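FORM 12-B: Structure-to-Sequence Request
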């Protein structure tokens, strides 16, 4: 094992008050993601590119926060740790132990947007486009927080930028016996986060897709996200048992492909109908 490999030694806390209570980077990442999304929604409204009034942005963000957090939490246990829910249902409430799933967060977000769209009489597809264009910010901050936490590490590798994650080995394992791994969290931050945000922002500002074909941008987000997620899964250590020979992140991404195609197909049909 080359001695040049960096050993992960970050604390998950920005400020720590007790053994389990403090200001965690993971919570801060979520906050920054929601703030960034709210800021972008404000810019959209000011530029006249949004059907969501400025005075309703805060209300939407409250719905988004609850949808993402509840969906992400339930999704983690149902998709990755289903046995835990049966044997220890209170684990759902122990948020300090971690456990969020992006696929579950998408489902929870969709439910929240559907409820908000109906209650405020705003197009559901338009809201999906707006949020899809901002989602990359939350994924970027979240994956960086995963790296700081030293969780969701990558597969064993000998690349020069590999990282030794002490928690990837059983407790008490001598450091020199711990294998170096891909910092896959940073790969995901770059692709699922920064790249997705850049593509969605380019599409939002440089095209008329959100007006001409509502729902298409959301569909494109799901398709591109599924592709980059599968790519990143090739470098990430599976965090649960495989499904039909694939990591669960890869397997669940195929459902995003189907959803993305459905949204794009509906958007294209709606755009043609409007043009007649």
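FORM 12-B RESPONSE
SEQUENCE OUT:
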């Amino acid at each position: 094992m080359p001695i040049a490999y960096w050993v992960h030694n970050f604390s998950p806390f920005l400020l720590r008050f007790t053994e389990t209570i403090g200001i965690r980077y993971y919570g801060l990442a979520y906050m920054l993601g929601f703030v960034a999304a709210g800021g972008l929604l404000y810019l959209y409204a000011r530029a006249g590119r949004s059907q969501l009034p400025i005075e309703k942005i805060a209300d939407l963000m409250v719905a988004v926060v609850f949808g993402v957090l509840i969906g992400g939490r339930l999704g983690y246990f149902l998709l990755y740790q289903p046995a835990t829910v049966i044997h220890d249902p209170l684990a759902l409430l122990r948020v300090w132990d971690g456990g969020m799933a992006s696929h579950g967060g998408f489902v929870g977000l969709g439910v929240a947007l559907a409820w908000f769209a109906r209650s405020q009489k705003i197009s559901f597809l338009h809201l999906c486009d707006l949020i899809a264009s901002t989602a990359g910010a939350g994924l970027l901050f979240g994956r960086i927080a995963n790296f700081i936490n030293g969780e969701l590490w990558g597969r064993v590798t000998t690349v020069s930028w590999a990282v030794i994650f002490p928690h990837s080995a059983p407790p008490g394992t001598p450091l020199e016996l711990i294998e170096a791994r891909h910092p896959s969290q940073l790969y995901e931050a770059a692709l699922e986060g920064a790249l997705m945000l850049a593509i969605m922002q380019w599409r939002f500002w440089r095209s008329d897709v959100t007006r001409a074909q509502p729902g298409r941008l959301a569909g494109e987000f799901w398709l591109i996200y599924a592709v980059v997620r599968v790519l990143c899964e090739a470098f990430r250590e599976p965090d649960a048992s495989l499904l039909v020979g694939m990591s669960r992140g890869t397997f669940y991404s195929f459902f995003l492909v189907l959803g993305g195609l459905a949204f794009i197909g509906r958007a294209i049909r709606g755009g043609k109908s409007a043009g007649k």
